[in-house]
Amino acid sequence: MFKPYEIFIGLRYTRAKRRNHFISFISASSMLGVTLGVMALITVLSVMNGFHKEVRERILGMASHAMVMAADGKLKDWRLAMELAAEHPEVIGEAPYVEAQAMIAHGREARGAMLRGVNPELEGRVSNVGGHVDGGDLSLLRPGEFGIILGKELALRLGVRRGDAITVVTPKMNLTPMGSTPRMKRFTLLATFEVGMGDYDSGMALVHIDDAARLLKLEDGVTGVRLKLKDMYQAPRISQELANSLPGLYYVSDWTRQHRNFFSALHTEKRMMSLILFLIVAVAAFNIVSTLVMVVTDKQSDIAILRTLGASPGSVMTIFIIQGATIGLIGTALGVISGILLSLNLESLVKRIESLFGVDFLDPDIYYISELPSDLHWDDVTLIGISAFIITLLATLYPAWRAARIQPAEALRYE
């Protein structure tokens, strides 16, 4: 435990005196630097978390948390697979699907796309694409009618409107007297959808699962079964458990494998941004070093008197550690509080600024979102607060060590 006089003197040095206003100004500047650095770090990470959450939800709105597929790519006993997967307590939704690459043509325009056959009655259990269909929902798809729903960007590039006939060409081949030709079928455009992700809006086409199976010659089989989980972050563990429990040659995958590179890039971006922003706190810590060095130089005679009265070098070092730690603690606390308040109220604050100046920071036509997302993670706040305080505490060691080495005789020689 610190001795009372060390705490008293250390806290006293942080307050302004008549002859050291400049040093007190530097101390306040250092404290403000720590506050701004911590606040900026918490706010920016919250915004990045919000963007990542928005992107993740949009991707998983079309993709699935986990998938059960056959080893040969054609799942025949998919009903049994659905029943067995539904027995797992973490699985809350399941639906079959058929998926294949295809080329969609209209007139002189042709675009590659992912053709996905869905069951309109079951698809809502695993995705929310039905809520993004313009002027309808997935019930527009009926077996045998060969209707199709295109992504909005894909429809614009093809120049098609509702009711137009389009041609879907698949890699499956038909054997004819003239040789092998790709299978193709005329579909009628029923509607478009827009989920806010370019990969899906410009490269996805939805048809009824029966029509897709017939086009791809799957008969009663499907490509696989899509699953929705209670906690998508547990998808790797649950996928492994399902793979161990399902009989036969089944292959179970999850969203972390499908989009591993993309989400790894997001995590790397967050780490690098955290490192860059943490340099702000490091600069503020260097300011604390400068402040304490100036205080030590200004207080040489006071230090000498304390040493003469019996204070040990460790006690002198403790005094200046307390002073620097006080600056760091107050700056970190203010930064954490202001960062939390700003992150929690960022969306409303941005709206007020936009309405005040008549500008749009996020154009929904470009970014697909109209509000700045913010997702505050308390583990990030805790890590930032502790790390910032430790950095400021380490910044006090060298000036405090220099103060402890001051010799009373040398300091009082010219006094």
Structure description:
- With 415 residues, this protein is α+β, with helices and mostly antiparallel strands.
- The protein has 16 helices and nine strands.
- Helix 2 packs across helix 11 (313-344).
- The protein is elongated and about 110 Å long.
Task: Give the tags.
415 residues; alpha+beta; 19% strand; elongated; 6-stranded mixed β-barrel; 2 domains
Short description:
The protein is of the alpha+beta class. It is 53% helix and 19% strand.
Topology diagram in text:
Elements: H1 4-13, H2 21-62, E1 66-70, H3 78-86, E2 91-106, E3 109-118, E4 147-151, H4 152-158, E5 165-176, E6 179-193, H5 198-201, E7 204-208, H6 209-215, E8 224-229, H7 235-245, E9 250-254, H8 255-258, H9 260-298, H10 300-308, H11 313-344, H12 346-357, H13 364-367, H14 378-395, H15 397-404, H16 408-411
Shape: elongated
Indicate the mean pLDDT.
81
Beta-strand content estimate: 15-25%
Q: What would you call the structural class?
A: alpha+beta
Please work out how many helical segments DSSP would assign.
16
Helix content range: 40-55%
Q: How many distinct beta strands?
A: 9
Spans of 5+ residues with little confidence (pLDDT < 50)? Answer: none
Q: Biggest sheet, open or closed, and with what strands and sense?
A: 6 strands, mixed, barrel
Question: From N to C, what is the helix and strand string?
Answer: HHEHEEEHEEHEHEHEHHHHHHHHH
* Alpha carbon gyration radius: 32 Å
Distance from first to last alpha carbon: 33 Å
Task: State the domain count.
Answer: 2
Main-sheet strand order equals 2-3-7-4-6-5
